[in-house]
Design the sequence.
């Protein structure tokens, strides 16, 4: 499977490639600054999993049956909380 990183996650490209994923960013795809629906449609047309932090593209993907991963601030906060507790306790 291939991944499309939404603009806020373009910095993850190298990390995901090291983990053996084939990754492209919206900038590389030539759709940076596009409307959310256009980004979602691009992901669908190219059989890509969209990784986004924005709720709207996630919801549009859900409605259109397009693969996506929604990483909200709440998810990031929970991961940080777990990591802090594992390393340093509470």
Sequence:
């Amino acid at each position: 499977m291939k991944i499309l990183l939404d603009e806020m996650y373009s910095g993850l490209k190298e990390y995901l490639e090291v983990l053996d994923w084939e990754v492209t960013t919206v900038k590389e795809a030539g759709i940076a600054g596009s409307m959310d629906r256009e980004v979602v449609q691009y992901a669908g047309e190219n059989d890509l999993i969209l990784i986004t932090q924005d709720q709207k593209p996630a919801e549009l993907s859900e409605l259109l049956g397009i693969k996506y991963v929604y990483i909200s601030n709440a998810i990031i906060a929970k991961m940080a909380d777990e990591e802090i507790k594992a390393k340093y306790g509470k």
In short: Strands lie at 2-5, 22-25, 48-52, 68-70. The mean pLDDT is 96.
